[in-house]
Amino acid sequence: MKYIRDGRAPIPKSKITSRVMSANVGKDTKPELLLRKALRYIGIPGYRLHWKKVPGRPDITYPGGKIAIFVNGCYWHRCPYCNLPLPKSHTDFWAEKFKRNKERDDENIRLLKAEGWKIIVLWECEIKRDVMECAERVRNLVCKIDS
Q1: Considering only CA atoms, which of 123, 119, 135 is closest in space to residue 82?
Q2: Each residue of 65-103: pLDDT tens digit?
């Protein structure tokens, strides 16, 4: 079993685990695509994707209204609703990685708020459960700022 690695994670114990982990992407995830489709459907397009001009490169931004939306994967960002267990192998590595992810998320939100941005964090499970309700939360904030 030959691995092509970048050195950021320990070598998985199985080929299946390696394949699953390699398939993870950082943007244009299924929850993001679902939310963007819902935002267009309810009539609030005009957002920017992964805008580099603000801390944390939020998944979706409405720069004019200073609204940043983070679509967080439950596993990587440690969803407060799902209470997912740590992986069974390399537990110390993953515990530290998830801790750093959460600290980075918190710091990005703090920096955005300091610059006057309004933040919405939507979890993968929330979007899967009711994407239209999530889109309505965004519309309520966008409309409040526009009026």
Answers
A1: 123
A2: 999 999 999 998 999 999 899 988 888 988 999 999 999
Tokens found for residue 125: 């499970």
C-alpha count within 13 angstroms, C-beta hemisphere, residue 93: 10
The separation between CA 30 and the C-alpha centre of its own chain, rounded to angstroms, equals 11
Number of Cβ within a 10 Å radius of residue 44? 18
**Rounded CA gap, 36 and 51, in Å?**
15
The pTM for the full model equals 0.81
Which tokens in the block code for residue 61? 């931004």
What would the pLDDT profile of 94-141 be if each residue is shown by its tens digit? 899 999 999 999 999 999 999 999 999 999 999 999 999 999 999 999
β pairing state of 60-62 and 48-49: antiparallel
Q: Contact at 8 Å (CB) between 135 and 38? A: yes
Can you tell me which residue has the tokens 């300091």?
114
pLDDT at residue 1, rounded to an integer: 46
Query: What H or E segment, with its residue span, contains residue 76?
Result: helix 74-77
Structure tokens at 99: 């801790």
Compute φ and ψ for 106, nearest 5 degrees: -60, -40
Find the length of the chain. 147
